[in-house]
Amino acid sequence: MIKIENVSRFYKVGNEKLTVLDDVSLTIEKGEFVAIVGPSGSGKSTLMNMIGGLDKPSKGAVIIEGEDVSKLKDKKMSKFRNEKIGFVFQSFNLEASLTALENVMMPLMIAGKPDREMKDRASSMLQSLGMGDRMKHKPTELSGGQRQRVSIARALVNNPKIILADEPTGNLDSKSGKAVMEILTDFKNQGYTIVMVTHNNQEAQYADRVIRIKDGKVEE
Length: 220
Prior knowledge:
- This protein is an alpha/beta fold.
- The protein has one domain: P-loop containing nucleotide triphosphate hydrolases (Rossmann fold, 3-Layer(aba) Sandwich), CATH 3.40.50.
- The chain is 35% helix and 28% strand.
- Strand 4 (59-64) and strand 5 form a beta hairpin.
- GO terms for molecular function: ATP binding; ATP hydrolysis activity; transmembrane transporter activity.
């Protein structure tokens, strides 16, 4: 499903070259739940951004379903990302002025789906995550755990092939965090490929496989 081939990412800072990823290679299979673990500044979020097309490698290739997405132009990359990848962020990234339902409808709106289909699919996804009675609430009227459920519903509403979760429980209490991890595990069991970035070793145990990154390299 995902193949990272000799990927490096570096930035110029004044006269110095800052290396964030250093010749990383790895493969993630279809239907696998992989946790990328490492300390702050290790390069794990940069690696996830490469997979999601939010950043491009300085060297190497990011191949998803046989296509090198690092070579895609911005417009094609946006379309690819909207169709194939669902993002779940630590900070939820919900639009404060929109209801839960409207937030979940956003990827469908970008894809140009008809109004009725957007509402039906978004409400169905929210109901499946136990948010049926909160669809008209705005993010400020929801708890952290509820906001993350809305974020997950938005990530899944377009039926993507890959879910990228960046510290998905980082802003949640332990009970809400456990519920989110169980939701991700359930979707993995339905055949989704999940890549999760975390510094929490306990949460990493939910994954099929753990990739440890340190100083921009795969440690184990």
